[in-house]
Amino acid sequence: xxxPHARTxxxxxxxxxxxxxxxxxxxxxxxxxxxxxxxxxxxxxQAGPGQLETVIVTAQRRAENIKDVPMSIxxxxxxxxxxxxxxxxxxxxxNSRSPSVSVESDYGxxxxxxxxxxxxxxxxxxxxxxxxxxxMDDVVQENAMLKGFPVFDVDQVEVLRGPQGTLFGxxxxxxxIKFDSAKPVFKTEGYLSGGFGKYGMKNLEGAxxxxxxxxxxxxxxxxxQRRDDRVHNPRPTGTRDFExxxxxxxxxxxxxxxxxxxxxxFNVHARNLDGTATLFRANILKQGTNDLVDGFDYDNxxxxxxxRQHLKTKGASMRLKWDLxxxxxxxxxxxxxxxxxxxxxxxxxxxxxxxxxxxxxxxxFVVETADVIPNHKQISQEFRAESSARGPLQWIGGLFYFKxxxxxxxxxxxxxxxxxxxxxxxxxxxxxxxxxxAFGSLNYTVxxxxxxxxxxxxxxxxxxxxxxxxxxxxxxxxxxxxxxxNVSWDLSGTYVLTPATNAYARIATGYRAPSxxxxxxxxxxxxxxxxxxxxxxVEAGIKxxxxxxxxxxxxxxxxxxxxxxxxxxxxxxxxxxxxxxxxKATGRGVELDFQANLSDSLSMTLGGSYNHTEIQDKKLFVxxxxxxxxxxxxxxxxxxxxxxxxxxxxxxGNPLPRAPEWQTNFTLKYSIPLANGxxxxxxxxxxxxxxxxxxxxxxxxxxxxxxEGGLRVGYKWDKYELSAYGRNITNQIQSLGAIDFDNLTxxxxxxRTYGVQFKATF
Length: 762
Description:
By secondary structure, the protein is mainly beta. Helices cover 4% and strands 55% of the residues.
């Protein structure tokens, strides 16, 4: 039997063998000086004719050439980012657009759930933690409602794959997605973009940058989007029209630089969304298969429930930087606050078996609920010092503090009663979280060819949780308290094989703090708890410039193990989650990023990943689909071994949920001079294989493989651009998720959209 160590060595040798198979004829790369850490991520060296621009990232909290960073990283910016966000796309545009990355939501344009290398969290509770960290302008966005902030006037998106516990801290054992807004500069510039499209889509976005004085610059950017309702209810009760929204966001940044050595950057931002929640469509899955039922009509949604959603967020940050002799000091202060309300018909239909008429299909009982965050506040503070003197040894050290307070209300309604009143099943949760951390990192240049890195972080987490039922049927409060401590570390090295090729290896750990939740739907319900999970990952790869820097390749192989993996299990025939810990979860895979300028007119990118994940716990079983208990004739078909109790299934050996094994993405851009401007055509495609919706496996609850594509054509002249776009141009409609406790309810993807845009820069 091969040991874990032997398997790791084998995978590393495979990586090096693959690396050797690629040509190494690229020219020597000029050294690239690192810009200031608060500077925009922009090319640090001028690219020659036909050459790719140098990509600068801040994955290690320093600005560095992406080629020199010993980890798997992908970036999105420029034309690709503009194309993917066209037509009012929310943050889910990242889904499958980067190797090993998935994004989905059961709440529509809010509450995105991120997955990297198969690691994520399917939990729909509003205090759910995720193993993928999201950082916006150097401030961590902990609550999922903060993670859906619209993407506009963004300089670059960085996807850091693998544990990031040392420099980014807790709740990042899978990786980090980092957004960097365009920063104020000392010149007058800006842009204004507007467009319209299918379903009455209207979009207006712009930015204005102006120097107020020699020491102060201001940048204001904003976006407003609107879409008409496109789904209609033919029934006389409930909400009549769905999937329209108004979504506006703005950001004001002020840069103050009174001296050469001191910089202050202030950021104020806000979002206001009014729309409808995700549509849970009753019995759209054909029993015994994962096909949609015959005659499925996207535009038709018969319901007796009320559907609406509202989200307000606001926040501010202050980033200070002092350049002192031999050392640079940073202070990052962040504040976030949100207010959220979402109400939906979870049973996805009308009536019930005990209250005919009912449909579509069999409705065992009605479920209409609202989730509310009436109170929320997040505060974070980081102090960081880093070396700035030249020499073989470079270091970073810092302290971090985080505090979050959140209240969550869960409300149910009686769809069958006149006026659809609130019923007595009303529960409230209060959670307070505090985290303290100290961290450090050392970089040592052993020789011109070899650089070593090591990092260490100590984290202390404290969480207090309380849940109770209120109104007519009270229960509780039920209190949970936990204090946990963790030490995360990483070791890595980069070796220059040739001036054009770097090889690297990395071993790193990550940590996700304990989780607590408690909806308390029934009087016998109690809060659930999952202890901290700890990840260990080994990774090796190459990064290579090809064909005189006209192409760039990054290849990585990896293997990881997560002990005490936090999982979210359903509760049978009840609309509730249960937190559990699996003994461990494992994963291994390969990631490829490639881009090339094929000619002066033609460029392309190609990405791909393979991720094999597995839950390993022979004793672990969960409740399977409750709809089979309600009505076997319309319930799901479980394929896992039956558990020790009726309606349960063993999940040992199953892949992690929402974790496709294969993902690929491809873009191609063609551009030619035309008249006094430039004509271009840009297409992008993303493919992923199937995945399980839940921890257990069932024929109905398995996503089909999916290929989605987009197209953008346009003309640029002077400072103007006119373009037309299409998203999901083949109009692939499939189920992406499901509700399993009531009936064969499905959640489907976005249909085909198209539109036109006009942009002016100044």
